[in-house]
Amino acid sequence: MKPTRTLIAITLLLLSATACDNTPVVETPSKEGDPYKENMINANRVIEQSENTQITSFIARRGWQMEQLSNGSWIEEYQPGNGKVIDYEDTIDVIYSLSAINGQTFYSGVEESFVVGRHKPTVGLDRAVQGMRRGSRARVILPSSLGYGVVGDGDRIPSRAILIYDIKIK
């Protein structure tokens, strides 16, 4: 084959390959009345209500005096600290144990340092420590949406786990 014929052959091959692309066309959902979107919203509401019922029952059985924060996490500061109030972007050192609402312990005595507001280790814990004082000890319960969500942590924490942190802020 001559160079021009080779170039034409390659071009035709590429054109035929892209013309036969079986990639499904993704339609943009309509803004009003999209049944898929509405079903997902309703499913998330059902999950949220179910988890909230589990959490409130769990708290009542233990007699804990917890308050629900605006983000949906629950907190009980059972040993208030007397240090500086923790604010957004403060770096803090914590020691925590992490278990599921079913009693399964995932981690115990973990020491970690993180910057508040950077969503580590989880978005719910990150938000719950804001406003606490250094030296505080607290219980924090997170619905799955504020923990590791539908995927878990890829190691020990399963999908949709309701998490309980017992945390000490140094």
Summary of the model, kept short:
It contains three helices and six strands, in the order ααββββαββ. The protein is an alpha+beta fold and 170 residues long. Strands 1-2-5-6-3-4 form a six-stranded antiparallel sheet.
Q: Can you offer a commentary on this structure?
A:
With 170 residues, the chain is α+β, with helices and mostly antiparallel strands. The chain has three helices and six strands. The chain has helices spanning 3-19, 35-62, 123-128, and strands spanning 67-68, 74-79, 91-100, 105-115, 137-142, 163-169. The termini are far apart. The model is unreliable at 17-27 (pLDDT under 50).
Largest sheet: 6 strands, antiparallel
The mean pLDDT is: 84
Spatial separation of the terminal alpha carbons: 75 Å
| Strand segment tally | 6
Specify the structural class.
alpha+beta
Radius of gyration: 25 Å
pLDDT < 50 stretches: 17-27
General form: globular
Adjacency order of strands in the biggest sheet = 1-2-5-6-3-4
Oligomer: single chain
Helix content: 25-40%
What layout of secondary structure does this protein have?
Elements: H1 3-19, H2 35-62, E1 67-68, E2 74-79, E3 91-100, E4 105-115, H3 123-128, E5 137-142, E6 163-169
Antiparallel strand pairs: 1-2, 2-5, 3-4, 3-6, 5-6
